[in-house]
Write a structure and sequence with these properties.
202 residues, 48% helix, 4-stranded antiparallel sheet, 2 domains, Jelly Rolls, alpha+beta, 8 strands
Amino acid sequence: MSNNLIIESVERYIQLNAEDKRYFSGLLQPKTFKKRQFILAEGQVCKNSIFVISGCLRGFTVDENGFEHVLSFAPAGWWMADMYSLITQKPGNLNIEALEDTEVLLLSKAGQEKLYTAVQQFERFFRIITEKSLVAYQQRIIENLSLTAEERYHNFCKRYPTLINYLPKKQIASYIGVTAEFFSRMQHRLAKTSSAAAQGRF
């Protein structure tokens, strides 16, 4: 499994020399998960930050009625973790599941702490990643409270352009907070409106 993708991801924010890259790579644990296999389950303590090399992960919770609520997706090149559990080392509420056969690199919390000492610029990198995660979480809350389903869908398309035609409709529906049936009707309506607009009929 190549580490090029994760190195490229890190170097968008900090510069690494050859020794830094070797040290960082030595802390990463490659792992493959089968489709529908859980990487983390509700009630477990999150011990790793997860970087996706190929495939896709979803993070979701399950309410008291057994309904799933998708909070985020992580396609190739994205990080995922239960941030609350990772930081506090207490049991979390997030489930992380592979949507298909997925290759990941795991960086343990202990490994992350070693990085901060050995390669100090990684503190800046993970601060940026954590800040971006918190901003995205806040935006999700605001969207769910104030936007229509169509607006939430448009934002999903902007956030995950590579997943629009890849994910099952029920997963996207869960992410934007509607039923699969409502989502299908909405998609059909949007397609008709787009077709009419392209033909100059309003």
